[in-house]
Write a structure and sequence with these properties.
Order of helices and strands: EHEEEEEHEHEHEEHEEEEHEEHH
Oligomer: single chain
Shape: globular
Number of strands: 16
Length: 337
């Protein structure tokens, strides 16, 4: 297929030219003959029924040192003229991010936006797992000190983190008997004013790593283990974690089979979930990563599967003459399982 696509991403200079998933997806698109452009969230405008962006053409080469990026001249791009938009800017999920989802929502019936902007806005990464109570550990979300204190003392050893941060930032492992809980609570309250925290029991399995599982169009592609540095509980690669090959358990399969239909319902086409031991911890939808280490460790080209499935959605729309099935996603919360 001869597709026209664009990426809504962060500045190129901030991307990891060796391991960035957005660039890997763009490179595969380029190999297929797609026209590839990119723009930044602040480049979006709504003008008389159209959503336009100041965009640049993107051309990529690849060598042993990673991707080599060549950018074209800036031009105005009518986003409804495109076949696909990849919504892949990094968190934090703040008001500028939310504003961009409202803009893209205006054209999501004409242009396939992955992940769907309505679904992304309604599927907060640390909150969406709450729909699946039998898959997650005991969880408290609150900014009330007495509730946080009681939960921590009950479980004795917990992980506490802000609800709207990412990449392992401000994640703390706390033992209530050591007496540092009150000061940590005060620190987080000052750093994240007005925002609740998420608190869960410490799961000792995290010391040997969590699993990043990748789902495309609601189906499990595979995964790998992220191993933290010695003495660290954060396994994110931004925090020095390393990737290792792993076997998938029956519980991993169960988790993915359970959440897959809901992901498709929300239009969350490309998702990375975090699993510790038997528990689902996060469902990452804003800018999921992991295709590069997954490819290195498993020899599977997830970027090819991504575009094969996207092309299938586009063909189905063309044949049926209907809107994209992702354009009418429902954000209503379903009953917990």
């Amino acid at each position: 297929m001869n597709l026209k696509i664009a990426l809504q991403i962060d500045p190129i200079v901030k991307l990891n030219l060796k391991r960035d998933t957005s660039l890997l997806l763009s490179y595969e698109a380029q190999k297929r003959g797609y026209s590839v452009s990119y723009y930044h969230p602040q480049d979006l405008s709504y003008l008389t029924g159209k959503v336009v962006a100041k965009a640049r053409k993107l051309s990529l080469q690849h060598d042993l040192n990673g991707f080599i990026v060549d950018e074209g001249e800036e031009h105005k791009l009518d986003l409804s003229s495109l076949d696909v938009i990849l919504l892949r800017q990094d968190p934090p999920f703040d008001m500028p991010y939310i504003s961009s989802t409202y803009m893209l929502e205006q054209i999501s019936h004409k242009t396939l936006v992955l992940n769907n902007p309505t679904g992304v806005r309604n599927a907060v990464e640390k909150l969406l797992p709450l729909e699946f109570q039998d898959l997650i550990p005991p969880t408290l979300i609150s900014q009330n000190w007495s509730e946080v204190e009681a939960f921590c003392h009950h479980h004795e050893e917990v992980i506490i983190k802000p609800l709207f941060d990412f990449g392992g930032n401000s994640v703390f492992h706390v033992r209530s008997k050591e007496g540092q809980l009150k000061s940590l609570y005060q620190l987080l309250t000052r750093s994240y004013p007005g925002l609740p925290f998420i608190v869960q029991p410490f799961l000792k399995e995290v010391l040997t790593g969590d699993k990043r599982l990748v789902l495309i169009d609601g189906e499990l592609l595979g995964g790998y283990r992220r191993v933290p540095l010695k003495g660290e509980v954060r396994s994110n690669q931004l925090m020095g974690g390393t990737a290792e090959r792993c076997e998938l358990s029956a519980r991993d399969m169960e988790i993915c089979k359970t959440i897959g239909p809901r992901l498709r319902e929300l239009g969350l086409f490309f998702v990375g979930i975090d699993v510790i031991g038997e528990y689902l911890i996060e469902i990452n939808v804003t800018s999921p990563t992991g295709l590069v280490p997954f490819k290195e460790l498993n020899g599977i080209n997830g970027e090819e599967i991504f575009w094969d499935k996207a092309e299938k959605i586009i063909r189905n729309k063309s044949q049926n003459g209907s809107q994209y099935y992702y354009s009418g996603v429902s954000g209503n919360r379903r009953p917990t399982h």
